[in-house]
Write a structure and sequence with these properties.
The chain contains eight helices and no strands. The chain is mainly α.
Length: 187
Amino acid sequence: MMNSKELYTKSNLLSLLRLLLAIPFWFLLEDLHSSKYIIFSLCLFAAATDILDGYLARKFNEVTEAGKIIDPLADKIVVGVIVIKLYMLNVIPDYYFYLVLGRDLLIFIGGIIVSKKIGKVLPSNMLGKIAVISISIVILLFILDVNRSNVFFISFYALSIILIFASFIGYLIRAVEFFNHRKYESI
């Protein structure tokens, strides 16, 4: 059971703040054209809280099981809300919408299964974080209405798709390793 001291750490509160940003994102995306710079600024703020929460958790020795859940959940919900809204507004292609949401849902469900099996939450890994960063950059490029034939856009778009698959496969391999080798004693 989670106690309030474990939940109310500086880093977890930052993650909860990032989670709450899903609400203004949803409404601001309604009028994407006139609010795209506000949305861009909120995205930068969300990214800063994501970097800062991990730093604070390590600096103040506040890495908690709750934080291992809240941090990636906040990322998935914020990215999910933005991707769903952009899909509803026909800003992103169907397949990109399904790739991003499918990856996150499968990783989330897999995380629940792994947590129930080993009794602990696997922390995020670097490949997953890089994938989320690349997806976030592509989402920002869509929001800013960057020319889709631009080499910069095409490069990040292709990279994000590769990383969606690579990170999912990485999470799958990691889960299998933990089950087979009982590595979770050291988590």
